[in-house]
Inverse folding.
């Protein structure tokens, strides 16, 4: 018998990182919209950042969705097999 | 004027004379640094391919690798964008009436200070270093008689030109204030 930790824990940890990332993205965008100047440069930067973010998240999702998150990471072997 | 509503409590007859940010080289330097941070793992992967590749055969290493790479690049992207936000929101404005200093420090501190042009006492421009001299950017120190004694325009383009302009504007404003005071004196004497 093998005891292990579910791989999904890593996934939840990843989601926490994504949540912090999205929060900081929102703060940055809020600052640019609230205090920035309405110039083409500013609008282009906001657009480029959002496009880049969406592209990275989609690419990440492509790889993440291929992983079996129901699996467990074996840590200790309990008992002797075959006895 | 489109930019006018960005001036804190702007006056009716107030006009923007200078709107300054740090030189483009400053943001380029920061963005290049983040580009290096983004390229480094790729270089490491290519150089140590023979050592790294067998590690991904294991059941745990692949999910860990995928998650780590995703977080690494998302945060590098975020920090690069934050560098731009920090650069973009640090602004120094000289109007025909006052000097306004707007500085964004991190995400949660925004510092706005201002001083009347006629209170300017001394203006100094400083170019320091090779890039500063070659690309003509530097720091302008403005000494005033107010509570915040010194205004610093950091790493702005053409600092000497900016200093000259501030001095010229300040002298014009001082003459105007002097005339106003004389006018007031004449008015009180006649009353």
């Amino acid at each position: 018998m093998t005891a292990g930790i579910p791989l999904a824990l890593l996934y939840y940890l990843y989601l926490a990182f994504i949540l912090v990332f999205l929060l900081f993205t929102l703060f940055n965008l809020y600052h640019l919209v609230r205090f920035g100047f309405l110039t083409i440069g500013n609008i282009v930067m906001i657009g480029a950042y959002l496009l880049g973010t969406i592209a990275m998240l989609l690419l990440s999702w492509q790889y993440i969705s291929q992983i079996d998150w129901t699996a467990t990471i074996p840590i200790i072997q309990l008992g002797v097999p075959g006895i | 004027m489109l930019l006018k509503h960005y001036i804190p409590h702007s006056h009716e007859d107030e006009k923007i004379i200078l709107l300054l940010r740090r030189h483009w080289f400053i943001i380029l330097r920061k963005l290049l640094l983040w580009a290096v941070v983004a390229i480094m793992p790729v270089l490491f992967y290519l150089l140590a391919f023979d050592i790294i590749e067998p590690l991904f055969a294991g059941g745990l290493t692949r999910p860990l690798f995928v998650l780590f790479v995703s977080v690494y690049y998302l945060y590098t992207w975020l920090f690069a964008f934050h560098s731009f936000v920090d650069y973009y929101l640090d602004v120094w404005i000289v109007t025909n009436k006052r000097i306004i200093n707007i500085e964004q420090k991190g995400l949660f501190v925004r510092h706005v200070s201002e001083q009347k042009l006629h209170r300017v006492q001394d203006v100094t421009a400083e170019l320091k270093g090779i890039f500063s001299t070659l690309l003509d950017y530097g720091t302008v120190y403005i000494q005033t008689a107010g509570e915040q004694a010194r205004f610093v325009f950091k790493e702005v383009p053409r600092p000497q030109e900016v200093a000259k302009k501030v001095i010229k504007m300040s002298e014009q404003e001082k003459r105007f204030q002097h005339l106003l005071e004389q006018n007031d004196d004449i008015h009180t004497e006649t009353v």
Chain B touches chain A through 28 residues (CB under 8 Å). Chain B has a mean pLDDT of 86. The first strand of chain B starts at residue 16 and ends at 20.
